[in-house]
Amino acid sequence: MRTLCAAAFLSFDGVAESPGDWMRPYLTPAIDEEMLDLLDEADGFLFGRNTFQEMAGTWQQRTGPMADLYNTTPKYVVSNTLRQPSWRHSQVLADPVTDRVRELKAAGDGLLLVIGSPELVRRLTAADQIDEYRFLLAPLILGKGKRLFPDGIHLPLTLIDAKIYESGVTQLRYTPTRS
C-alpha cells in the first residue's frame, strides 16, 4: 500500500497560504536538494485544483531536474470542475475524494505526495488518510493568511525526524499517533 504524505511550507504561525510570496528568502541549496529528493521518491503527486493550476502554470514550461520530476511524475488533481487538465500525466479525481484516494493508496507501493493544497490536506486529515506530514517551517510570523489547520482540528502526532537548516528553516516529519 502506498504511503500518503502531505508536504507544506508553513510560517511559524501556521500560515500555508501563498508560500511563494514569503518562503523564497529562506530556501537554501540544502533545502532545494531535500525537496528534490522528496519529489524523486514520490511515484505520484496529489493536488487540490487551485494548487494544481498554480503548479502547472509554474512548472510545465520549465526544464531542469525539479521541473522534469514535476512534469513526468503522474499527477492527480481533486476537482469537480476541471475536466481536461493540460499538464501531461494528469488525471482528475472527483468526489467522493476520500474513496478515490483510498483506491490510489491501495493501487501500489511507494509514496503518494500531497503538495501544498491546504483544503485537500484538511479533508484527508479529517478522514484519517494521511500517513505522514512533512513541514518546512519558516522562521517568520506572518500574522495573517490562511493557516494549514484551522481551529477545531485535534490530531496527536509523533515526531519521526527534525532537521534545522542554516537559514533557520526547520524540517519536521510527523506521523499521526494512531491507537
Helix content: 25-40%
Counting helices, strands and paired strands, the structural category is: alpha/beta
Query: Mean of residue pLDDT?
Result: 93
How many extended strands?
Answer: 8
Largest sheet: 8 strands, mixed
Uncertain runs are none
What strand order characterises the main sheet? 4-3-2-5-1-6-8-7
Which of globular, elongated, flat, extended, rod-shaped describes the shape?
Answer: globular
List its salient traits.
179 residues; alpha/beta; 8-stranded mixed β-sheet; 5 helices; 27% strand
General description of the model:
The protein has 179 residues and is an alpha/beta fold. It has 5 helices and 8 strands. The protein has helices at 29-41, 49-59, 65-72, 97-106, 118-126, and strands at 3-10, 42-48, 75-78, 90-93, 111-115, 132-137, 157-164, 170-176. An 8-stranded mixed β-sheet has the order 4-3-2-5-1-6-8-7. A hairpin with a 5-residue loop joins strand 7 (157-164) and strand 8. It is globular. The model has no long low-confidence stretch (mean pLDDT 93).
In short:
This protein has 179 residues and is α/β, with parallel strands linked by helices. It is built from five helices and eight strands; from the N terminus they run E-H-E-H-H-E-E-H-E-H-E-E-E.
List the helices and strands and how they pair.
Blueprint: E1 3-10, H1 29-41, E2 42-48, H2 49-59, H3 65-72, E3 75-78, E4 90-93, H4 97-106, E5 111-115, H5 118-126, E6 132-137, E7 157-164, E8 170-176
Parallel strand pairs: 1-5, 1-6, 2-3, 2-5, 3-4
Antiparallel strand pairs: 6-8, 7-8
